[in-house]
Backbone:
């Protein structure tokens, strides 16, 4: 069926206007070369680790289970750090549904 | 301050001191707070004076203000959506200009860089964090928790995915804060170290002043680089805030 009233085009524009589709290219951080990427990846990993370690340490102190939760959350923090870096490199994974 | 007793004192510049004599001492008013007030004053002054004429053909200050506003409005509009993004423009604008002017102020001689303190950057990042969480809750209610567990993932993976996603979410303000703080601190330490080299080498007999030209030239280059970093970090903070706002508004 021919798209006689330009429905697809209007839908696309409406989606872009409401920010459902991130415009390609302009939607991401400036590509500051490999240096910028490396530094940002480092910050992402370190901050996830800090959060994981801090969470584990405080939970341990609260529940008196030192050092088990600390170790567990250290691993979880590392995984979250890797996940952060993965998202940094694959920002296009913004399909339908939460990610 | 530089090269006291022939040592490199790179971190002394970040020390907080109270200003305004006994009054400042009594309330803990430091040079950091003074520079924050100065930054806010500069921003408000620029905007007020810039927009007072409202000329059709803008003058320098007016076009500076207008392009700054349009820059942020476009940035937020592209990220969050032209319609939904509107209400976040003032917030991101305030954040961006505050960090930008703070970074640039710190590059002036005798000035203090308040963005080089993690207490300041983390406070700013925490405000962003609270805002995105509140916005996500207000718009989506309980569906917000779906953020931490992707639909369609096998249920037995939940004990792994949920803590990892929660940590990843909580790491956002930390990474925002560390990025700005680390960039500003590292730059100023570098400047101070090379400036100290100039002084130390300059005192090294006859050839000293000639060798001292090298760190001096390096410092000139670093100042240029620091101006870039100051602009870039303010931009990165603003755009990451917008990306997080996009996630909060559209929940994915």
Residues:
């Amino acid at each position: 069926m021919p798209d006689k009233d330009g429905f697809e085009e209007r839908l696309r524009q409406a989606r872009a206007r409401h920010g459902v589709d991130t415009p390609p290219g302009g939607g991401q951080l400036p590509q500051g070369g490999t240096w910028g990427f490396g530094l940002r990846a480092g910050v992402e990993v370190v901050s996830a680790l800090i959060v994981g370690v801090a969470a584990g340490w405080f939970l341990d102190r609260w529940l008196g289970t030192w050092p088990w939760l600390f170790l567990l959350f250290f691993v979880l923090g590392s995984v979250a750090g890797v996940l952060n870096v993965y998202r940094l490199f694959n920002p296009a994974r913004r399909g339908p549904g939460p990610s | 301050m530089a090269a006291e007793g022939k040592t490199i004192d790179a971190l002394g510049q970040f020390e907080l001191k109270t200003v305004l004599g006994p009054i400042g001492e009594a309330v803990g008013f430091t040079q950091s707070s003074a520079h924050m007030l100065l930054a806010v004053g500069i921003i408000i002054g620029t905007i007020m004076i810039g927009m007072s004429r409202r000329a059709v053909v803008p003058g320098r200050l007016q076009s500076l203000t207008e392009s700054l506003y349009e820059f942020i409005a476009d940035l937020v509009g592209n990220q969050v959506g032209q319609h939904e993004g509107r209400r976040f423009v003032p917030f991101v604008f305030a954040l961006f200009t505050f960090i930008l002017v703070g970074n640039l102020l710190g590059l002036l001689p005798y000035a203090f860089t308040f963005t080089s303190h993690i207490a300041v950057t983390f406070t700013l990042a925490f405000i962003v964090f609270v805002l995105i969480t509140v916005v996500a809750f207000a718009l989506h209610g309980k569906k917000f928790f779906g953020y931490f567990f992707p639909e369609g993932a096998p249920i037995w993976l939940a004990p792994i995915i949920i803590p990892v996603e929660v940590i990843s979410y909580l790491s956002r303000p930390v990474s925002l804060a560390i990025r700005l703080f680390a960039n500003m601190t590292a730059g100023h330490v570098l400047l101070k170290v090379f400036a100290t080299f100039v002084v130390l080498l300059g005192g090294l007999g006859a050839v000293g002043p000639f060798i001292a030209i090298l760190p001096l030239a390096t410092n000139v280059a670093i100042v240029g680089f620091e101006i870039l970093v100051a602009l870039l970090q303010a931009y990165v903070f603003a755009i990451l805030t917008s990306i997080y706002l996009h996630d909060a508004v559209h929940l994915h």
Q: What stands out?
A: Chain B touches chain A through 39 residues (CB under 8 Å). Chain B has one domain: 4-250. The first helix of chain B runs from residue 21 to 27.
